[in-house]
Amino acid sequence: MDFSYASSFSLIFLAFCFSSLSTTATARGGERSSDFSGYLDHNLAYSTRKLSEDKQSATGVDVARGYMTNVELEKAVEQFGRRCSHISRFYSIGKSVEGVPLWVMEISDKPGQQEAEPAFKFIGNVHGDEPVGRELLLLLANWLCDNYMKNPLFFPLNDDLDSRQPETKAIMSWLKERRFTGSASLHGGALVANYPWDGSQDKRKQYYACPDDKAFRYMASVYSRSHFNMSLSKEFDGGITNGAFWYPIYGGMQDWNYIHAGCFELTLEISDVKWPNADELPVLWEFNRMSMLNLVASFVKTGIHGKTFSSDNGQPLPASITIKGINYTVKADGSFGDYHRMLAPGESYEVMVTMPGYQSKSTHILLEDEAMSVDFVLDPEDDLQMHLQPRSSCNDNHKLELLKIFGKIHLEIPLVAAFILAFLCFLLKRKPIVNLLKNRQLAGQKRPAAV
Ligand SMILES: *[C@@H]1O[C@H](CO)[C@@H](O)[C@H](O)[C@H]1NC(C)=O
Ligand SMILES: *[C@@H]1O[C@H](CO)[C@@H](O)[C@H](O)[C@H]1NC(C)=O
Fold first, then answer.
1. Could you tell me which of 198, 290, 398, 439 has the fewest CB atoms within 10 Å of its CB?
2. For the segment 251-267, what is each residue's pLDDT rounded down to a tens digit?
3. Three-state secondary structure along the chain?
4. Is the pTM of this model over 0.85?
């Protein structure tokens, strides 16, 4: 296992959900259900967004003409699976409320294997009446398959290198097993990249920044600026918006991912019109293609990545990584010890690593435009203590703390999903800037720790 990433691919998930057209749901971009425990602004929010003109919200066959039906979509995904079986895998994570299996399709150079790499998921068709996303995701999956191993990048290389529905529960337990670094759900009805928080503490419509506001603004801008014209928005400065500033919602998927799944998720509104004529889909795909790819790429092209090890036996440690001044903890993986931390580039950071039973460490970094590799080798506090300490982390406490703010948060991921598709993307080679473990053969060796 080589952490230089030189020759491997990242594992990226494309979640792809579809449902009946009549679905209503409570989450950004969807229709409000009548039991939405409300607050002030939601009518205002709708008028602000100019959503759901009558003809767009119609669920008749006319607006759907030219779009794939669920059956056609399922076929297309199966075809994709056959054509690209060398890099993909299907599995089900449960059933939807209507009893339809929730399939995951994973695309990876090593399908079925978890690796010490960042993972990304896309979720489309969260609301049954916003069909553009699911069409684009299928196009994206096929594009990736066609370009797999051909053109190393689509991207310019800059270096060498509680829920009510069963599908909600299924997604939640899936996310407990399957860690994602980043995520995006695709919606229609506006043109903007929306980032947390979606809800504000006092439920008013106001900018409500999460601890990683800068990183989220960066991610949202990557999407917006790579898009044909999202950044030219008159309604949203730069084509991005804080969710609570636009209109607050609670129990949305985006906040849940950040709080509970350690995953940085955006909500992407990718077309003003929910049901554009189907013949506009190729254009919409072109408008969004580089955005989707660049967003995924940003998770390997920037931020800090590394591993946390024990100095006495070289074993990976599920240590907690925090950045001074940012009240959020990212936890390293228990099996591989890898962590991936999105951060806005062009800033200095102090990275701190803690692990019960081990001496904490910290280091200063200047994160420029490229990603950095920062590994940590932690020394036991002392041998006896190390054996007595439980292997836990601050992460859970932290999540609980965050939960207190959003005391009322309850998951309403409105997935009435029948399908989830996952796929892989190319991993960018990158030059480790701080790479403190030159010798990778750690096992059984005692080594001095530089960080
Ligand atoms: C983006 O381009 C589309 C297609 O030309 C147009 O309908 C839309 O109004 C444009 N949006 C912005 C924000 O420029
Ligand atoms: C960190 O965030 C939690 C809730 O999100 C809050 O209770 C706590 O006071 C914060 N800590 C600091 C140092 O701001």
1. 439
2. 778 888 899 888 999 99
3. CCCCCCCCCEEEEEEECCCCCCCCCCCCCCCCCCCCCCCCCHHHHHHHHCCCCHHHHCCCHHHHCCCCCHHHHHHHHHHHHHHCHHHEEEEEEEECCCCCEEEEEEECCCCCCCCCCCEEEEEECCCCCCCHHHHHHHHHHHHHHHHCCCCCCCCCCCCCCCCCCHHHHHHHHHHHHCCCCEEEEEECCEEEEEECCCCCCCCCCCCCCCCCHHHHHHHHHHHHHHCCCHHHCCCCHHHEEEHHHHCCCCCCHHHHHHHHCCCEEEEEEEECCCCCCHHHHHHHHHHHHHHHHHHHHHHHHCCEEEEEEECCCCCECCCEEEECCEEEEEECCCCCCEEEECCCCCEEEEEEEECCCECCEEEEEEECCCCEECCEEECECCHHHHHHCCCCCHHHHHHHHHHHHCCCCCCCCCCCCCECCCCCECCCCCCCCCCCCCCCCCCCCCCCCCC
4. no
